Amino acid sequence: MTPEQYTLLVWAREDLESARLLAAGGYSRGATSRAYYAMFSTARALLLSRGLDVSSHAAVIATFGKEFAKSGLVPREAHRRLLDAQDARLSADYATDSTIAAEQVQVLLTHAEEFLALAERMLGPIPPADEETR
Fold this sequence. Notes:
Number of strands: 0
Oligomer: single chain
């Protein structure tokens, strides 16, 4: 695991924990956003394992779909869940008429957890974060 992958996966784990805390506090919008970013950082780390360094949201999602889902390295539903998480995040962050049910957040949290677990199976376990990364 490269230092950049390590950092991205630590960010992903921290974003997932933040999403859990926000959801527990009833902050569905914030939880949705953080859960998406956990998946986004995880996708970036996976792309780096193939020598692909992309950072824009559209490029990460499209390249992840092409390199991992279409090629069969991951189930296609992983890419679909990343797309769905982005849609939910955009709605949570920008749609003033958006409401996000607690049940929707729980599904998104589960998908983010599974996404991170997928990366750990492919890249190895995420080492414990040191205090400097917090």
